[in-house]
Specification:
Elements lengths: L7 H21 L7 H8 L3 H7 L3 H26 L3 H17 L2 H9 L3 H4 L10 H15 L8 H21 L8 H16 L5
Helix pairs in contact: 1-2, 1-4, 1-6, 2-3, 4-5, 4-8, 5-8, 5-9, 5-10, 8-9, 9-10
Length: 203
C-alpha cells in the first residue's frame, strides 16, 4: 500500500511533536540519554520513519536550537525596536529572556545547559544565533554613550548582566531543594541591583 503523503501542515506538526519529545528526554535526563531510537519510541514511530523527518541526531538538535533561538531573537528584537530608552529596553529584554526560559524549562536545558561538542561545535557562534546578545550589547553601548551607564566595554557590561540573569534562571530551574522566592521577584531584584551598579550616578 502506498504511503500516505503528508501535507506541509501535517509534516510541521509531526516535526514539532518530535522536537518537543526530544526536549522532554533531555530535560528529564541529559543530552547523552537522547538517542534516535529512544526518541522514535516516545513519538510512536519506527527509527526508520523518524529518520525521514530528521536524517540524524545532529540535524534534529539543530532544528530544535534553530526554533528556540529564532523565537528568542524575535522577542528581543521586537523589544529593542519598540523601546527608545536604552535602560528600559535592557530591563525589558531580561524580562523577556526570563519568560522565554521559564515557560519551557526543557527548552532552556537543551539550548543553554546541555552540550556535546561533536554536535554543537561552532553552531552557537553563527551570526543568526548571536542576535539576542548583539542586541543587548547595542543597547548597553547606547546607555554608556548617553552617560547613563558608567564608562566601560559594552560587551563586558552586557556579559555581567546576562551572566547574573542566566545564573538566577538556572538556579530556579535546576534547584528543587531550596525554598526559592517567586521567579519574578528574584529576577527583578537581581537585575535592578546590577543595573543600579552600572549607573553613572544614583538617581
Amino acid at each position: 500500500m502506498p504511503r500516505h503523503s503528508m501535507s506541509e501542515e501535517e509534516l510541521e506538526r509531526t516535526k514539532s511533536r518530535i522536537l518537543k519529545e526530544a526536549g522532554f528526554i533531555v530535560g528529564q535526563s541529559s543530552l547523552a540519554s537522547l538517542s534516535m531510537r529512544t526518541l522514535a519510541e516516545r513519538v510512536g514511530l519506527t527509527p526508520g520513519a523518524l529518520y525521514r523527518y530528521f536524517p540524524s541526531k545532529k540535524e534534529m538538535l539543530h532544528a530544535y536550537w534553530d526554533s528556540g533561538l529564532k523565537e528568542l531573537s524575535e522577542r528581543i528584537v521586537a523589544i529593542s525596536s519598540d523601546e527608545v530608552e536604552p535602560v528600559v529596553a535592557i530591563r525589558n529584554m531580561f524580562a523577556a529572556y526570563a519568560e522565554f526560559c521559564l515557560e519551557d524549562p526543557d527548552r532552556f536545558r537543551v539550548i543553554f545547559l546541555e552540550s556535546d561538542h561533536s554536535l554543537d561545535e561552532g553552531y552557537f557562534q553563527q551570526p543568526a544565533h548571536l542576535v539576542p546578545y548583539e542586541q543587548l550589547v547595542e543597547r548597553v553601548a547606547e546607555a554608556v554613550e548617553a552617560g547613563v551607564f558608567r564608562p566601560g566595554d559594552p560587551h563586558l557590561l552586557a556579559q555581567a548582566l546576562w551572566s547574573a540573569a542566566h545564573g538566577a534562571i538556572t538556579l530556579l530551574i535546576t534547584e528543587t531543594g531550596l525554598p526559592l522566592s517567586p521567579p519574578h521577584d528574584l529576577l527583578s531584584i537581581i537585575i535592578d541591583t546590577l543595573m543600579r551598579g552600572l549607573l553613572a550616578k544614583e538617581p
